[in-house]
């Protein structure tokens, strides 16, 4: 009797070892490509704000954070942790912060304080995990309904919109090339093409820039395997300059970055829900949302501690799970190892940094608008009733705070200057109003599609 061939596209595969080592390695590479464009885009965007966030450090902690997350979740969940877009608004606010001690601060030191805020944001995940473990997820989510999280996500995109226009204006035709590729791949693409539109937009725009002679490779002159300005192999900045990379802590920076955890935690819960639906397992119940929150939160705190961005579970890789029907977490761990290997190449990081600003602007046009649109979707799919004056007031106050406090809110406590960014003010106002106003009728789990739309990685 002929043995049945086990191939991708038939029944879901939970053990990729049955496919053989070569195919398993290729599947891991596919997951790396899925996360790559968005993960690397975060340090590129943060650098455009004026803060020197390292591409090498970002890739290292994306891989390391993914492996740590898998350990925390008993090696059961096929999730990849990449760079979170939710914190871009915080990085932008930190770059523009010019009050008190930040007035004459160097960009590198500002980044350290921003990363200190990310450490605290990661620890908030751990606190939420403990609360979820004690009282249950349904009770916790009543304090973070879509009428609060939706407008906050909308504001993240709107506050970043000016930087997209600024970058794109350096060369409009190149920005339009990148935008067109992303739109075409996302709407008309099939299979893997539809899953990696951001990566294709960056690569396609980069090829156009190369043909037009707009890319500068002078930083690679004289580079060798272990020598030169940007060698092929080399350590990440936190290894070579520990004191210049480790996070610093200040209340103003913490209040800029930490409140964004409200949106990113909703993103996390949405992604875990989406992965559960894709794989056909209830990961919120087993191994438990408290474990996934601890894994994501500690991974984020560790990344921030050594100068990296916040991590988040990636919807792009959930798309690959659906496409390949290979649901083995081992394949995700291979992608994590690939990311860590790439992080040991300064030459590769330099190549990433040669991407023209116009391409970043074109990609940002789509990305930042999409973040805001996802916030709208979060509100719509959860059927938030805006004929209810309670919901209308909460959303109105959040939006006005987020758009009105353009310079943030600065006050002095005991001789210490504290600055809250517009997004932080909006998040605090929304959470407080939702807690004190009567009539909260949100029940987590009531809308299966709505509960998982907070993901900033899905489109």
From TrEMBL:
**Pfam families documented for this protein:** Xan_ur_permease
Q: Which UniProt keywords apply?
A: Membrane, Transmembrane, Transmembrane helix, Transport
Localisation: Membrane
Membrane topology per the record? Multi-pass membrane protein
What GO CC terms are in its UniProt record? plasma membrane
- Identify the main location: membrane
Write out the GO MF terms: xanthine transmembrane transporter activity
Instruction: Give the matching InterPro entries.
Output: NCS2 (IPR006043), Xan_ur_permease (IPR006042)
Spell out where the chain crosses the membrane: 24-45, 51-72, 79-99, 111-131, 143-165, 171-188, 195-215, 246-266, 331-352, 358-380, 392-411, 417-437
Say which family it is in.
Answer: Belongs to the nucleobase:cation symporter-2 (NCS2) (TC 2.A.40) family.
Name listed for the protein in its UniProt record: Uracil-xanthine permease
Q: Which organism is it from?
A: Evtepia gabavorous
């Amino acid at each position: 009797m002929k043995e049945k061939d086990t191939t991708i596209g038939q029944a879901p595969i939970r053990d990729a070892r049955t496919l053989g080592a070569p195919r398993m390695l290729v599947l891991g590479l596919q997951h790396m490509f899925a996360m790559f464009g968005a993960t690397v885009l975060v340090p590129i965007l943060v650098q455009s704000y004026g803060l020197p966030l390292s591409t090498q450090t970002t890739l290292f902690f994306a891989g390391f954070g993914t492996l740590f997350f898998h350990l925390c979740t008993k090696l059961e969940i096929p999730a990849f942790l990449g760079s979170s877009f939710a914190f871009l608004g915080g990085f932008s606010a930190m770059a523009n912060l010019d009050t008190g001690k930040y007035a004459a601060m160097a960009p590198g030191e500002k980044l350290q304080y921003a990363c200190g805020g990310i450490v605290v944001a990661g620890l908030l995940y751990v606190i939420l995990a403990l609360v979820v473990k004690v009282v249950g997820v349904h009770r916790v989510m009543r304090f973070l309904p879509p009428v609060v999280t939706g407008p906050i996500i909308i504001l993240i995109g709107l506050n970043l919109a000016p930087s997209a226009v600024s970058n794109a204006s350096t060369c409009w035709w190149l920005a339009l090339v990148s935008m067109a590729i992303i739109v075409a791949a996302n709407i008309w693409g099939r299979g893997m093409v539809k899953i990696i539109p951001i990566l294709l937009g960056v690569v396609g725009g980069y090829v156009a820039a190369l043909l037009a002679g707009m890319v500068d490779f002078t930083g690679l002159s004289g580079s060798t395997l272990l020598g030169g300005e940007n060698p092929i192999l080399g350590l990440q900045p936190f290894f070579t300059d520990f004191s210049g990379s480790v996070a610093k802590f200040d209340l103003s920076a913490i209040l800029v970055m930490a409140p964004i955890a409200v949106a990113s935690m909703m993103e996390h819960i949405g992604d875990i829900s989406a992965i559960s639906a894709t794989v056909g397992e209830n990961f919120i119940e087993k191994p438990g949302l408290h474990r996934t929150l601890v894994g994501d939160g500690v991974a984020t705190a560790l990344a921030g501690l050594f100068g990296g961005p916040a991590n988040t579970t990636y919807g792009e890789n959930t798309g690959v799970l659906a496409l390949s029907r290979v649901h083995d977490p081992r394949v995700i761990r291979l992608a994590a190892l690939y990311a860590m290997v790439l992080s040991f190449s300064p030459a590769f990081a330099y190549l990433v940094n040669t991407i023209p600003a116009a391409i970043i602007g074109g990609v940002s046009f789509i990305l930042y608008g999409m973040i805001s649109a996802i916030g709208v979707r979060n509100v719509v799919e959860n059927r938030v009733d805006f004929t209810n004056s309670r919901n209308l007031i909460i959303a109105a106050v959040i939006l006005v705070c987020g758009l009105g406090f353009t310079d943030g809110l600065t006050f002095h406590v005991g001789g210490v200057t504290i600055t809250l960014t517009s997004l932080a003010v909006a998040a605090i106002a929304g959470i407080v109003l939702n807690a004190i106003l009567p009539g909260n009728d949100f029940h987590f789990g009531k809308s299966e599609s709505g509960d998982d739309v907070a993901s900033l990685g899905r489109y």
